[in-house]
UniProtKB/TrEMBL annotation:
E.C. code: 2.7.1.130
Role this protein plays: Transfers the gamma-phosphate of ATP to the 4'-position of a tetraacyldisaccharide 1-phosphate intermediate (termed DS-1-P) to form tetraacyldisaccharide 1,4'-bis-phosphate (lipid IVA).
Protein name, per record: Tetraacyldisaccharide 4'-kinase
Residues binding ATP, per UniProt: T68, A69, G70, G71, T72, G73, K74, T75
Any one GO biological process: lipopolysaccharide core region biosynthetic process
Annotated source species: Acetohalobium arabaticum (strain ATCC 49924 / DSM 5501 / Z-7288)
GO molecular function: ATP binding; lipid-A 4'-kinase activity
Length: 382
């Protein structure tokens, strides 16, 4: 969807746009939302009654998903858990659908855990980013996760299978459902798409085993308590982990290995460049590092940049007299390789901000969960 159209629709459903046309749009969206709700109910009944079967793997399957459209922070959670399981000596693989990937086959091996076999265009930005950031973790793409999951288990020896964006993917049985909730926009406007941005009704939160609350540092303590209280209304037994997206380094677009740990941007006039689900959170992170964000360039989520766009961005940055252009790792993998050579001699640098998931909840609670998932007794007791 075009970014300007997406922003207009979001403004309408959030009540920021008024007038006759906005009311017509809301009526249409409400009608479509009711149809979507009916489809979800029918689908749920088909699975509950066994008319549609779910596939069970011999591996332990951990689903990471959300109930709102947009960027909640699923990818950092997947990276975090994959690293923790690898540290424990468990063979881990990640299943990703390969959104906006050129690859359209049944099983696409982005990485076999030894080398990356696809580029970002073929694999899709998220799958490629996962493969690049986790060199020892296989990443497999395909729309049918039961098929790619079986491949990960039988061909790649996966003991732990992480199902990325899997909360609505019921065709594969899972041993743990992790729901990622963005503290800056936890429940949207409480309405289903397209009248709102919910992918499922809030009552679906009852299916979650664990909630990962992300970006908790970007909301007040009172607001955080309100969110946790709301989660308990729908699911009183789920574990809740509070997390932040901690900035970890700045690097140039061309030099992946030369990451700068100095994140002080005090006094720097910065252009924020992003094509992600929640650009405001990224921009606030830059401001928290001391940057003065004088220009915000936003593209739609999963945007594939062209060389012309990057050069135009540099022209705009020069006109704005900014000191730095800063983007995300997700955006960096979506930029054409040849553009890196063309911008090396530019007076303004393009930097990439790296972030890591940091869990604030007591470590023993996380360790207890990981220990359960390691053992076969967890699977037997589910």
């Amino acid at each position: 969807m075009n970014r300007s159209l997406e922003e207009y629709l979001l403004a309408v459903i959030r009540g920021h746009k008024q007038g006759f046309i906005a009311r017509i749009v809301l009526i249409i969206c409400s009608f479509l939302s009711n149809i979507f709700k009916l489809i979800l109910k029918i689908r749920s009944k088909l699975y509950e009654s066994g008319i549609i079967d779910s596939t069970e793997l011999d591996s332990t399957v951990i689903s990471i998903g959300n109930i709102t459209a947009g960027g909640t922070g699923k990818t950092p959670v997947a990276q975090f858990l994959a690293c923790r399981f690898k540290e424990r000596g468990l063979q881990t693989a990640i299943l990703n659908r390969g959104y906006k990937a050129d690859f359209d086959g049944r099983i696409g091996v982005v990485s076999d855990g030894r080398r990356v076999k696809m580029d970002a265009t073929e694999a899709g930005d998220e799958a490629y980013l996962l493969a690049e950031s986790l060199p020892e973790v296989p990443v497999v793409i395909g729309s049918r996760r039961a098929v790619t999951g079986e491949y990960a288990h039988s061909e790649l020896g996966a003991e732990i299978v992480i199902l990325d964006d899997g909360f609505q993917h019921w065709s594969l049985e899972r041993d743990l459902d992790i729901v990622v909730v963005d503290a800056t926009n936890p429940f949207a406007n409480g309405r289903l798409m397209p009248r709102g941005t919910l992918r499922e009704p809030l009552t679906s939160l009852a299916r979650g085993d664990v909630f990962f609350l992300t970006k908790v540092d970007q909301v007040s303590k009172d607001r955080l308590e309100e969110i946790k209280s709301k989660l308990k209304e729908y699911n009183a037994t789920a574990l809740v982990f509070e997390t932040i997206h901690a900035p970890s380094y700045l690097r140039s677009l061309a030099e992946k290995e030369q990451a700068d740990k100095n994140l002080d941007l005090t006094g720097k006039q910065v252009m924020a460049l992003s094509g992600i689900g929640n650009p405001q959170s990224f921009e606030e992170t830059l401001e928290s590092l001391g940057a003065e964000v004088v220009k915000k360039v936003r593209f739609e989520d999963h945007h594939q940049y062209t060389e012309e766009e990057i050069l135009n961005i540099f022209s705009s940055a020069a006109q704005q007299e900014v000191d730095l252009i800063i983007t995300t790792e997700k955006d960096a993998v979506s930029m054409p390789p040849q553009v890196k050579e063309k911008i090396t001699n530019q007076e303004i640098e393009l930097k990439v901000l790296g972030i890591e998931l940091e869990v604030l909840t007591e470590e023993f609670e996380l360790e207890s969960l990981l220990l359960k998932l390691e053992g076969t007794e967890w699977k037997a007791n589910r």
